[in-house]
Specification:
With 117 residues, the chain is mainly beta. Helix content is 12%, strand content 32%. It has a single domain, classed as 3 Solenoid (UDP N-Acetylglucosamine Acyltransferase, domain 1), CATH 2.160.10.
C-alpha cells in the first residue's frame, strides 16, 4: 500500500514530466500569481491576489479565493478554497485534507472537523 507521502512524491514527479497545462487562463484574475511547475484543470478560477504554485495541481473546476495561497498542494477534486486560506504541502480530495509528511489528515464535515489518525 502506498503511503500519502509516496503518493504525493509520485504526483510531483509526474508534474515535472508533463507539459504545461493548456487550460485556458480565462478564470485566472489578472492580479493572481501563478508559479512554475503548476498544472491547472479546465474551468479553474483563481481570485485577485491569490498565489498558486509552485508544485501544485488543481483539478478541473477548482476555485481559489481572493488572497488565498496554495503551494506544493494537490487538489484532486472540484473544491472551493476560501479567501485568504493557505495550504502548503497538502493533498485535498473531497472532504479530506491530508498531510503527506505525517500521514495524518482532517475530514471536514458539515458541522465539525474530525481528526483522522
Amino acid at each position: 500500500m502506498t503511503t500519502p507521502m509516496e503518493f504525493y512524491r509520485t504526483l510531483l514527479r509526474l508534474l515535472a514530466t508533463v507539459p504545461p497545462s493548456s487550460a485556458s487562463l480565462k478564470g485566472v484574475h489578472r492580479h493572481a500569481t501563478l508559479e512554475a511547475r503548476l498544472w491547472l484543470g479546465s474551468k479553474v478560477k483563481i481570485g485577485s491576489g491569490a498565489r498558486v504554485g509552485p508544485d501544485s495541481i488543481l483539478a478541473p473546476g477548482v476555485t481559489i479565493g481572493k488572497g488565498a495561497q496554495v503551494r506544493s498542494t494537490i487538489i484532486l477534486t472540484k473544491e472551493v478554497i476560501g479567501a485568504a486560506v493557505e495550504f502548503e504541502g497538502k493533498i485535498i480530495v473531497g472532504n479530506m485534507i491530508l498531510d503527506p509528511n505525517s500521514g495524518s489528515g482532517l475530514a471536514i464535515g458539515e458541522k465539525q472537523i474530525l481528526r483522522v489518525p
